[in-house]
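TASK: fixed-backbone design
INPUT:
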């Protein structure tokens, strides 16, 4: 599935994303630096009922948000990790197999850790105001 959206319509794109993937809980997001991965995930988490202050988990590796609708939501950023062993040490696997929503940036750092039904999402910069979201389920 693919969706091209303008950044001012990112909330509509996130709503579409949630409808398309409603049965899934684990998502990877791949895209160049500045493609909007963190921004998109933050909007999705807000739509899922999280009211927390959102920030990139680049330094903390895992951010945990509480959703009034869905319980715990995990936002994971593997950018600083070298491999799956470092991800395991950071507790990433516990999150991925928790049954809670998990949104993972830079999944290529630990490709062998993800559950079989993980949804792969790719964000591409079309231009300064437009993004292309590709979803592989």
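OUTPUT:
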């Amino acid at each position: 599935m693919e969706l091209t959206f303008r950044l001012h319509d990112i909330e509509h794109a996130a709503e579409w994303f949630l409808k398309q993937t409603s049965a899934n809980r684990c998502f990877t997001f791949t895209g160049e630096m500045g493609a909007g991965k963190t921004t998109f995930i933050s909007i999705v988490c807000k739509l899922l009922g999280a009211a927390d202050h959102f920030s990139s988990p680049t330094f903390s590796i895992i951010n945990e948000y509480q959703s009034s609708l869905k319980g715990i939501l995990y936002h994971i950023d593997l950018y600083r990790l070298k491999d799956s062993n470092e991800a395991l040490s950071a507790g990433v696997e516990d999150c991925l197999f928790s049954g809670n929503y998990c949104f993972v940036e830079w999944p290529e750092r630990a490709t062998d850790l993800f559950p079989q039904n993980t949804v792969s999402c790719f964000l591409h910069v079309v231009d300064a105001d437009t993004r292309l979201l590709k979803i592989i389920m």
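COMMENT: The mean pLDDT is 92.
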